[in-house]
Amino acid sequence: MVDIDAVRDWLGRLPGGSLVGQYVDDWDAFEKLDRPVVTLFGSYDTGKSSLLRRLLVDSGGDVPGWLTISARHETFEVNDAEVGGCIIRDTPGFAVGASDIRAQNNSRRSMAAVGLTDVGIAVLTPQLATAERDMLQKLFTREWPVGSMWFVISRFDEAGVDPEYDLAEYRQLSDRKVRELRELFELDDKTPVFVVSQDPFQTAGPDTDLSRETWDDFRDWDGMRDLADAFEAVSPSALPRWRHTAGQRYWTAVLDETMTELRRQLSEYTARADVAASGVARRDVWESELDTLDRAAQASLDGLIEEVMRRSWEPSSGPGALQAEIQRTLDEWFTKHEVRLQRLQQSIRKTKERERARPSWAGFASLVATLGSGEDASTTPAGAGGAAEHVETVGTMLIDMLKAANNAPVPNAGGKARSAKAAGGLGRHIGIAEAALPLAVYLAKVVDAQGADRARLNQDKAAAEKRQQVVTECTQRTRDTWQPFVDDVREAIVAETRDQVDLDASLRQLVKQLQEAVTEGEGLFRAGTVPLPETEA
């Protein structure tokens, strides 16, 4: 039992948007009906459509064009017909465990229709419930006032005993099947169970242009008279109580199925948020490592150029020896620190490969692809209303919420986005020799130009300052040459973690909102205090 007003308020505040309007529309349309609604449900090929045809023909009504009789799965929509003072709904059959979309939609429409009915009639074959047992059991455990849940064991002429030859054994088998059904679902004696042969020996087959006389030869044993009498006995005076309980059943089902969907979404988005958070953490770690490597390289560069130039001004140094010395020194420096960058790059690659091999990455990558697709996720599934028809919109609302939070499509997951400079792959865009040689040539020219004044440069203060200026300029040139190496790695780090960092804040917020919604929904189950009205036996 739930507080319906509280459930509606909760539905109006779900993360991503409100579902309450959709549910209210479905309920209002049902509540306005001034006659009892009786819904036939069960697996396909249990005989629901042929049962409805028989009821219509026996009552003198016309068989509508949408009603088809076949051994195949023919009913795909929920349709209404009138029998006596009742509205009878024929539903698509359950297809338990089906993987195709049409079968899943049929099952969903059937469950939704049962949520919006006053009387439910479970139609089963003589083999009783098999694969659909759990689905039916779930429906039966919801509140049904006495007399508002019926069972029909259908097509009993196919049960294995021919009533034309041994009516007594036929009736014994019928009684045994009724007992088995009551035991299977723990039904009490107040729950009506009918055993019928609505089209004995397929006398009418698929025809719909029929008269009552079609089945006159079988009326003594086909069980249809008892079922028709039960329809005639449906009292309009019971409708207010049935409708009140239908409201409880419907809104409880809405809460239950929406909670199931929210828990599923919470589980999925928690995993996605964990992937995003891991990307943020890795970016921080990798950038910290890169900064440490860069600082170490910069620190080791201080004084290095000055020492090379000091040695170059020794009298024994010739121009060729000078350039060779500069080349060797810079090669050693670049090689040492470039190896450290390569190790970091390798660590980044291996970490990302391991991460993408985990199941959680597939879910995150799928989310990123959806957000970046540019398609409108705000679509409402077509069908016949009810909770099962609407819970899938929870997922689309959450996608739209994330799109709005990020304001733009997110790049494709996988970290392939790169700057033009880093498009060739992780790491350097030039080699060590190419980096060091221009510096060596430049320094050699500077030193050679000052060769005639070496002695004065070592003694004169102004000249010494000029020498320091040259050292500073050369050091900066070396740093400028080194910087693209660092930038390439930094760009790779950003590219490898961009999707995760971009979505981190919005995913954390969404997970928090889903957690709050689930907690509040669980509280609605615990707080239900609305009593059922008295019902007639």
Number of helical elements = 16
Largest sheet: 6 strands, mixed
User: Which sequence of SSEs, written as H and E, runs from N to C?
Assistant: HHEHEEHEHEHEHHHHHHHHHH
Measured between the Cα atoms of the first and last residue, the distance is 21 Å
Oligomer: single chain
How does this structure look, described?
The protein is mostly helical. It contains 16 helices and 6 strands. Helix 9 runs antiparallel to helix 16 and helix 14 (432-449) runs antiparallel to helix 16 (461-526). The longest helix has 66 residues, at 461-526. The radius of gyration is 39 Å and the shape is rod-shaped.
What are the main properties of this structure?
mainly alpha; 16 helices; 58% helix
List the SSEs and their pairings.
Blueprint: H1 4-11, H2 20-31, E1 37-41, H3 48-58, E2 79-83, E3 86-90, H4 101-115, E4 119-124, H5 133-140, E5 149-153, H6 167-185, E6 193-195, H7 224-232, H8 239-301, H9 304-312, H10 319-356, H11 359-371, H12 387-390, H13 392-406, H14 432-449, H15 454-459, H16 461-526
Parallel strand pairs: 1-3, 1-4, 4-5, 5-6
Antiparallel strand pairs: 2-3
